[in-house]
Design brief:
Blueprint: E1 2-3, H1 12-18, H2 20-45, E2 51-54, H3 58-67, E3 73-75, H4 81-94, E4 100-103, H5 112-124, E5 127-131, E6 137-142, H6 160-171, E7 175-177
Parallel strand pairs: 1-2, 2-3, 5-7
Antiparallel strand pairs: 4-6, 5-6
Helix pairs in contact: 1-2, 2-5
């Protein structure tokens, strides 16, 4: 899941400190990195890869997908993050997928092993999450639709992971956690990644 990497349409918290042009360049590099990692994992594991874009219209999304060498791109649609996540899971399960993993596009440390590990975890548990340093999560995977999992969560806050786990517990969903990663949202998050 990614926002279109153009000024004023992505990384608003990062743009507040760096300016919209530089924030868009950072988003573009993060998106290229993430897609490269996902392509490697897809090739190794036979994973179908789909880019869900936000902040863009259908024609521009298709142009961006072609530029990035992707065949499958969809729009995230309207709504809060929970609604958009739920929509992507619904689309994937409706087309017959048995395991679905959604990953953000702002992960400089993302590696193919993270995605392979997520799908391996879904063999044992119905839910897998990749905890983020800021209290959210950078990855979520499911073996079946679970719309209530996305309700009542304060999206963007430091309790997203805790609230999601509480929802999962209430639904009787066991889970597996992957390694913790830092996503890149604010100017201070760039300090370890000066190469960006």
């Amino acid at each position: 899941m990614a926002r279109w990497p153009v000024p004023l349409r992505c990384k608003s918290r990062l743009a507040a400190g760096l300016g919209p042009q530089r924030a868009a360049r950072v988003q573009q590099r993060l998106l290229q990195h993430g897609l490269g990692v996902m392509a490697l994992a897809a090739k190794r594991q036979g994973i179908a890869l789909r880019l869900a874009m936000a902040g863009v219209g259908p024609r521009a999304a298709l142009r961006e997908a072609r530029r990035l060498g992707l065949g499958d791109v969809v729009l995230q649609g309207q709504g809060c993050l929970g609604v958009r996540l739920q929509r992507q899971f619904g689309r994937a399960f409706a087309t017959g997928h048995q395991q679905v993993v959604l990953v953000g596009s702002d992960l400089p440390q993302l590696a193919p092993a993270d995605l392979v590990g997520a799908f391996a975890a879904l063999e044992r548990q119905p839910l897998v999450l990749g905890p983020a340093v800021d209290g959210g999560y950078w990855l979520i995977g499911l073996r079946r639709p679970a719309p209530p999992l996305f309700c009542g969560v304060a999206w963007g806050g430091e309790q997203v992971l805790a609230q999601t786990l509480s929802r999962a517990e209430g639904m009787g969903l066991d889970w597996a956690l992957l390694r913790q990663q830092a996503d890149l949202d604010r100017p201070g998050d760039l300090l370890p990644w000066r190469c960006l």
